[in-house]
Amino acid sequence: MQNLVFTPLRKGVPKRLVPIIGKAVFKQSLNTKDLREAKSLIIPLLADVDNQIRLAELQLTDDSSQELSLRDCQIIANRWYVDALEDIQSDLP
């Protein structure tokens, strides 16, 4: 058996959403050689990717009648935090 590290999470982003999401492909290594462990790790990651794509679709259509879930709010807040932190760090001497 080969010593492979599974990298099964690879999901393309629809072209119209690339400017919103900021990348063309979601990729993430699961850092495991165990197929069972990889299968269990990928489920929440895929759910998160699907959620990010759904939120980008909402942003693209500007449909404000949609209700956001707690997870949606967490993703939005996390993106804002990462962007704000990068802005602050880029302004430091």
Q: Mind sketching the topology for me?
A:
Elements: E1 9-12, H1 18-21, E2 25-28, H2 35-61, H3 70-91
Summarize the structure.
With 93 residues, the chain is mainly alpha-helical.
Describe what this molecule looks like in 3D:
- The protein has 93 residues and is mainly alpha-helical.
- The protein is built from three helices and two strands, in the order E-H-E-H-H.
- The N and C termini lie far apart (50 Å).
- 2% of the residues are buried.
Rg, nearest Å: 16 Å
Query: Would you identify the regions where 5 or more consecutive residues have pLDDT less than 50?
Result: none
**Alpha-carbon distance between the two ends:** 50 Å
Strand sequence of the main sheet, in spatial order? Answer: 1-2
How would you classify the helix and strand content by structural class? mainly alpha
The percent range for strand residues is 5-15%
Strand tally is 2
Number of helices: 3
Shape, principal axes of CA atoms: globular
Mean pLDDT across all amino acids = 83
Order of helices and strands: EHEHH
Largest sheet: 2 strands, antiparallel
Helix coverage percent of residues? 55-70%
Supply the key terms.
single chain; 93 residues; mainly alpha; two-stranded antiparallel sheet; 2 strands; 9% strand; globular
